[in-house]
Write a structure and sequence with these properties.
With about 400 residues, the chain is mainly beta. Helix content is about 10%, strand content about 40%.
Length: about 400
């Protein structure tokens, strides 16, 4: 769960903030304070227009800052650990409902603090999917209900994981360094996995509803013929309760950005968030810090046969050994190395006959047809994956 929180909730990607033509640098801060978790915070420094070395606004990851958890009773936690430039890890213990919490950042000669907030309880979330039309888009939805009084505000994060496979189950390979073939005892590149961490800002509220319930709110859509759905697909959605001020901050960032993205896409200079510089009020801070007692999660799997998909055409040419040799001769290629460099792979077997290894090549094809890694996959199988594929 902690790994998912770090991966999804941190939502760390390249910053590209659109600032006004001011000359001052601005601190950029993002993160969630969640009880009993290992929280990850981002700290960056905006580069104003006209600064040397860059024609555009950008964000520089900050190293050497000191970050602490604080509360409204004057307590301060141990210092966070910098895990890499811009990313700081802070162990959050038990949070009390009647205590407000925030973070404090000490950087160079200034001290920055987020506005302390009471930790909010997050209700359960339920993810679901629907395909309204045959072979049409697959829609991911979320629902949640809170029985307490008052309007509720939420933010969602998601991560997609899916399994893919090569077109041919192959363990026959060519080594251009020794100009010979070899065969493995297993199929190393038949199964792979891919993942995508959503970078959109996804917020919602119950202000216009008669009850504190959000039913089937659309989070995203995917084309039915997407490779995501070619085998087994999973989406993990996490929900965190936020304040009205936080909701308005994220809503305004979305509204004023022409392109959707994470918390770190272009942002207007008049959207500041809930942090400030207490040693120099003229220095502005961009970003928002949420405080929550918990974060809830829902994971849904989707099998290929559960949705309607259009026929998928795979471009896997098959070139015979004879045609390949003729092609090499016509083009003055005298080594399989050249063919290998062009992205082809052999499909065949290697058998021992009378003490001699004989290579039987059925055909040559593109590497994307024999190696799932050439299709963009990796061998990093998610820990929660339900099958025994390797």
């Amino acid at each position: 769960c902690i790994i998912i929180v770090l991966a999804i909730c941190s939502c760390v990607s390249e910053f590209n903030i659109e600032l006004s033509t001011e000359t001052d640098y601005r601190l950029v801060v993002e993160g969630n304070i969640i009880a009993d978790s290992e929280a990850i915070f981002y700290i960056g420094l905006s580069t104003p227009l006209g600064s040397s070395g860059s024609d555009e606004n950008s964000i520089k990851n900050v190293s050497g800052a000191k970050l602490f958890l604080i509360d409204n009773e004057g307590h301060r936690s141990e210092q966070a650990t910098m895990i890499e430039d811009g990313l700081y890890s802070l162990k959050i213990g038990t949070l009390l409902e009647n205590t407000k919490y925030g973070i404090e950042i000490q950087y160079i000669n200034d001290t920055y603090q987020s506005e302390p907030d009471f930790p909010l309880w997050t209700p359960e979330v339920n993810a679901s999917w629907v395909q309204p039309e045959k072979e049409g888009d697959v829609v991911l939805q979320v629902s949640t209900t809170d029985s307490s009084d008052g309007y509720k505000y939420y933010m969602w994060y998601y991560q997609e994981d899916w399994e893919i496979q090569a077109n041919y189950r192959n363990r026959f390979y060519y080594d251009p360094l020794i100009n010979d073939f070899y065969e493995l005892e297993y199929y190393p590149y038949y199964y792979c996995w891919e993942k995508h961490i959503g970078k959109e800002i996804l917020v919602g509220n119950t202000e216009a509803l008669t009850e504190n319930s959000i039913i089937n709110k659309k989070i995203f859509t995917r084309n039915a013929d997407d490779i995501r759905f070619s085998m087994l697909y999973a989406v993990t959605v996490q929900q965190i309760a936020i304040t009205k001020d936080a909701y308005e901050y994220f809503y305004n960032v979305n509204r004023q950005n022409t392109e959707m993205g994470c918390l770190f896409t272009p942002q207007p200079s008049d959207v500041q968030g809930n942090s400030k510089c207490i040693t120099n009020p003229d220095k502005k801070v961009i970003g928002n810090i949420n405080v929550a007692m918990n974060i809830t999660e829902s994971r849904k799997f989707l099998k290929e046969e559960e949705i309607s998909r259009p026929p998928t055409k795979i471009d896997c040419i098959q070139i015979s050994e004879e045609d390949m040799l003729e092609y090499m001769a016509d083009n003055n290629y005298y080594s399989y190395k050249f063919v290998y460099d062009m992205g082809f792979r052999p499909v065949g077997v290697r058998e021992l006959e009378d003490g001699i290894w004989i290579n039987y090549i059925y055909f040559w094809t593109y590497n994307k047809c024999t190696e799932c890694t050439a299709m963009g996959g990796t061998k990093d199988k998610p820990l929660f994956w339900p099958n025994d594929h390797e």
